[in-house]
Amino acid sequence: MLTRRHFIQTSAALFASTAIANRPAHAARGQWDMWDAKVTPDGYIAELSNPWGLHPRFLPQRVEVSAGLAVGDIHVDPVARYLYHIEEGGTAMRYGVAIARGNLYEPGVYRIHRKARWPRWTPTAEMIARDPDLYAQFADGMPGGLDNPLGSRALYLFQGNRDTYLRIHGTPAPRSIGGRASSGCVRMIMAHINDLYGNVRTGRRAHFYSTNDLVSATS
């Protein structure tokens, strides 16, 4: 089982209205830059800007990580609620995240097969069966937008050629960061995943560690 042990060396309204859901995708594309501006704070500095009221440890930081980790890979620590993007020279950019609630978190190693800006969202059949009152109305999907549950960017996770329907994505619910909130995906502040998105290449791996390896979440 994939665990967190020996990884860290040191470390310094969700749904749109029906009108929005029916908006043509080509019309929304022309609004992407405007939406990016709306989710990026004025004078944005990743390590300092915090209009969301996050605990300071969930703001982006460059940290040292253990030797031997593949540059470009992503590692998710579900206990501390951190995502690490490995850089050259033994460092990583670390971001605060939210993970899946209950038993919906799925540890494993995935490939980032696709990236999307302001992506369309469609709940899975399992989500609809589990919470029909919440999700059934969106069975045909929702175009990208400020209220879309996938937020401004999404990384699509596969195992082989199989889409796992797990994503690393932005969220219009920033207060969920640091908690367990999703139906399986890893959530990030939209301004933060916008930064990450441009530095992630398809084909790289995303390592989701086990929640059973209980290391302090205050590192």
Give the SSE map:
Layout: H1 18-21, H2 25-29, H3 32-38, E1 61-64, E2 74-77, E3 82-86, E4 91-96, E5 99-100, E6 108-117, H4 125-130, H5 132-135, E7 153-159, E8 162-171, E9 180-182, E10 186-189, H6 190-197, E11 205-208
Parallel strand pairs: 2-11, 5-9, 8-10
Antiparallel strand pairs: 1-4, 2-3, 3-4, 6-7, 6-11, 7-8
In whole angstroms, the N-to-C terminal distance is: 22 Å
Order of helices and strands: HHHEEEEEEHHEEEEHE
Sheet with the most strands? Answer: 9 strands, mixed
Strand content: 25-35%
Give the fraction of residues assigned to helices: 10-25%
- The average pLDDT is 86
Tell me the number of strands: 11
Give the radius of gyration.
17 Å
Instruction: Give me the side-by-side strand order of the main sheet.
Output: 1-4-3-2-11-6-7-8-10
The protein's oligomeric status is single chain
Structural class comes to alpha/beta
What would you say this structure looks like, in words?
The protein is an alpha/beta fold. It contains 6 helices and 11 strands. It has helices at residues 18-21, 25-29, 32-38, 125-130, 132-135, 190-197; strands at residues 61-64, 74-77, 82-86, 91-96, 99-100, 108-117, 153-159, 162-171, 180-182, 186-189, 205-208. The longest helix has 8 residues, at 190-197. The radius of gyration is 17 Å and the shape is globular. The two termini are 22 Å apart. Mean pLDDT is 86; it is low at 8-23 and 214-219.
